[in-house]
Amino acid sequence: MATLAHDAKLQVRIDGFLRYLIGQWEGIPDLAAEWGDWDGESQADFALDWPVCEDSLTQVCCYAEHGLLTAEQSARYEELLQLVARHRPILDRLLSEDEVIERVSEKLAQDCCLSVRRRSNNSLELVSQHAATRATCRLTGSGEDPPTAL
Question: Which terminus of the chain has a smaller tally of CB atoms within 10 A, N or C?
Answer without folding.
Answer: N
